[in-house]
Amino acid sequence: MAEYSNPQLPDEVNNSDARPLRSFFAMAAAVVVLGAGAALAFAFLGGALARHLPYAAEVSLIGPYAKQYPPREGPVEIYLQDLVDRLAARMSLPEGMQIQVHYVDEEVVNAFATLGGHVAMYRGLLEKLPDENALAMVLAHEVGHARHRHPIASLGRGIAFAAVLSLVSAGAGSGAAESILGQSGMLTLLTFSRAQEEEADVAGLAALAAVYGHAGGATETFRVMSAAAAEKGVREPPKFLSTHPVTKARIERIERMIAQNGWQSDGDRTPIPRAVRDALKSATKTR
Amino acid sequence: MQAFFDYFDVILFVTLFVLGYFAGRWNERRHYASIRKRERELSGVLLFSNRFPPYVTGRVETRLVAGSAVISGDYFKNVLAGLYSFFGGRVRSYESLIDRARREAVLRMKAEARKFGSGMIINAKFQTFAVGGRNENSVRGVEILAYGTALGPAPRA
Prior knowledge:
heterodimer; A: mainly alpha; 12 helices; B: 4 helices; 4 strands
């Protein structure tokens, strides 16, 4: 038997996986890059396509939620709605779009636009605004969002992003989807991009100038918002992180736009009617 | 606490992944050490794929011997294999499973042959089976069956 032998094969000849962790991280990084690219592409497409959803579909989407907030007949509501109607008349809204203002009796210094042409105005902000012109700028800005269909674009973007995220993690994905589609989230948590904010500013400013014959009050709102934020101890984030254009840059941009269009930068200011002021005060007292 | 439940699937994944990596590595190192040791011990049992014995053996007793081994992957290997199958190329993380299963099966077959007093196995063949893997939660592994004809010591006349 001496002429026969089985040689000892070199070890691990068939096992080439010497650095599994390195291979893993290289491939995982590639997957993350691809996934992030897909997520961004989806979010972009979601936003871009949602804009082309018929407006009637948007209204029926928000229908069940809107029913919980029927128009109310208080002095503040009537005043706000009348003001919005005057502004909207100058904003060439898409056909069938009706803006409905909701007055929210809360301290929050904010206003927002959401699906179906619904705009919410908080008492906190309303009280801080010096006159009707400044208030008109806030409302016209929000109507500008609705006019350019930003809420539905934002929703589409959010849903598309959540869909991609849910491929990675069911928990995180459904969490994101919930916060977008959830009842309160749908109404208040829609976020707009900086470009959308600027678009809304342009539309709002033009309407303001058209209604009052001058652009007075256009920059006050942003000073008020920024002061309110400072009060809460919130510093403005660096520009590239912020969705709302940073106040100073935003005011400068608005002033530039006023000059370019040859609008009067200021003129006679219209006060907020006494009856409305009183209604706000009594609301504050009763709580 | 809420975050724990919200991201339970992520936490589970990371836990299994890390556990799979360390446990799998430790296991594999131990197994390879044992394989090498026994391969040296059993190097006296020769293995041939020829159907007929070398002519020098003369008349001997024959017996069917077999050895089989099932080796499972770990979570880390499965994830890595998923990535390999996404990008294409060698599924390197499964190569060690096949290698270990084949060598272990041969060792078990040789051990059986030695028990019988044999110093040679001829006509050795292999069968490979994938274990599980049909649904996501099943164990994924590989079974290799080695079988052959052991030539025993010459019968006492």
